[in-house]
Amino acid sequence: MTCQIDLTGLHNQDMLHLLSSSLIITFAVINGVSALTLPAPEAIEVPLRLVSRPQQDDPELLHRRQADSTLIYEQTNLEPVIQVGVGTPAKDFYLVFDTGSADLWVPGPFCTSRQGCPSGRRYDPGRSSTHASVPLSRSLFTAVYGSQTTTGEYMEDTITIADNVTLPSQEIAAVLKTKGLLSSGNHGGGVVIDGIMGAGYPTLTMSSTRYNYQYLPVPQHLYESKVVPEPFFSVYIDGDDSRGGSVVFGGLQQNAVSDSLRKTPVVKSTYFNGDATHYYQWRAHISEFSRTTTGDNSSSTALLTMDEGSSFHFDTGTATSRLPNGQGDKLARALFGDSHVRHLYNVYLISDCTQFRNRDDWVMNLSFPDTEGNSFTIDFKPSDLLIDYSPLFDLCMFGFMDGDDYFIGNNLMKDYATIFNFGDNTIGFADINDE
Question: What are the residue boundaries of the Peptidase A1 domain, all occurrences included (predicted)?
Fold first, then answer.
């Protein structure tokens, strides 16, 4: 159908306005631009599922085949897993959503179970129409995650999240070989983990460390590409393991109470590589652990006071929170009493677990500095601090284990939505409405 315009009776000025408008409309149509049809970016919520990592390659427990070590491993290695499509057409992979690293990697075409990729799902760049190489001078990918070592090749391709949201030209790594905690097929939850989606700062990528070349990890790339509206992502680990929780790119969970948001500054720490001039990890200072009794005669008692140089790494890829230098032992005994605490390997078992789970007369407080020079606390009930261990003997594990660094793991991300903001470099906490 052809549209015709009657120009009869128009003056010269009217003609100029009409022609000018026609040219603008024509230009807009040719370039596919229309202010009326361009959708505003929206937050993207993606489900997480909790999956247990395999036991057999854990160096700390490799020589221990007792029931104790198996139970400890199963309870301290639950990972939040996100489903991501890679390439065109998209091939789905199950990746640990990890704020403690920044690279996204998946099994490459030649990574079989013998090379540490047991799922059978492999990314073949030759079969993707959107694959692109990176310069050879920075193409080698090598990474160490605790006891896991991974080698492969950097490249670019389109990734797909939430079924139909695509992100072109995302830098990823196709792995040739991996050895360590993801390389066994004995995963729980009916899912075999394929790799990792890192959500740290660009300076934390292995490309930045090895080649001094920084690319944007997925959350930052989504924002810079105007796919999502805000420069942050929020993580909520649901206390019901069957539901898992979610990560929201560019927004908050629907059940998060937005006006309860409290923020603490991200700390520039020397812990990662000795450099305190850049942001690398999602680290924040916790000034104090305390216990507050509830009721009419409430009172607060300081349990641990942290020096200003200490900072906690907020790491979704670490299942259990950690304290170094025997501070976990001190905290456990202060909260639950000497007679109820047993130190086993690097964890603390709590006896008479049922009575503590049912207590509502005290909470543990974590105190943070806010962005205005004041402070705030987030609170945890006794049941929030305990992890199932042996119901038969009424034993639980304390939510903090021994470690060589300060960690807040995903076990303490079940009561709040945790907001990682790379726009103002803060970590925030929002209450969750369970109703």
Answer: 80-430
**Single-letter amino acid, residue 282:** W
Q: What is the pLDDT tens value at each position of the chain, 435 positions in all?
A: 434 334 344 444 444 443 344 444 343 444 544 445 568 999 999 999 988 765 443 433 333 333 344 444 344 568 899 999 999 999 999 999 999 999 999 999 999 999 999 999 999 999 999 999 999 999 999 998 877 789 999 999 999 999 899 999 999 999 999 987 676 555 555 788 999 999 999 999 999 999 999 999 999 999 999 999 999 999 999 876 567 899 999 999 999 998 999 999 999 988 888 888 999 999 999 999 999 998 778 899 999 999 988 899 999 999 899 999 999 999 999 999 999 999 998 999 999 999 999 999 999 999 999 999 999 999 999 999 999 888 899 999 999 999 999 999 999 999 899 999 999 999 999 999 876
> At CA 85, angle to CA 80 and CA 86, rounded to 5?
120
Q: Is 360 a catalytic residue?
A: no
Give the integer Cα–Cα distance in Å for 16 and 143.
Answer: 63
Looking up tokens 């020079």, which residue turns up?
Answer: 373
Classified by CATH at the fold level, domain 256-434 comes out as Cathepsin D, subunit A; domain 1 (2.40.70)
The number of helices, as runs of H, and strands, as runs of E, in the chain is 6, 28
Topology at the third CATH level for domain 43-56+70-254: Cathepsin D, subunit A; domain 1 (2.40.70)
DSSP string, 163-191: TTEEEEEEEEEEEEEEESTTSSS--STT-
Strands 165-179 and 104-107: parallel
Helix, strand, coil shares, percent, the chain, to 5: 20, 35, 45
Catalytic one of 57, 58, 315, 415? 315
- Per-domain boundaries in the chain: 43-56+70-254, 256-434
Q: Parallel, antiparallel, or unpaired for β 312-314 and 407-408?
A: parallel
Mark whether 315 is an active-site residue. Answer: yes
Of the listed 98, 157, 194, 238, which one is catalytic? 98
- Alpha carbon distance 160, 364 (integer Å): 40
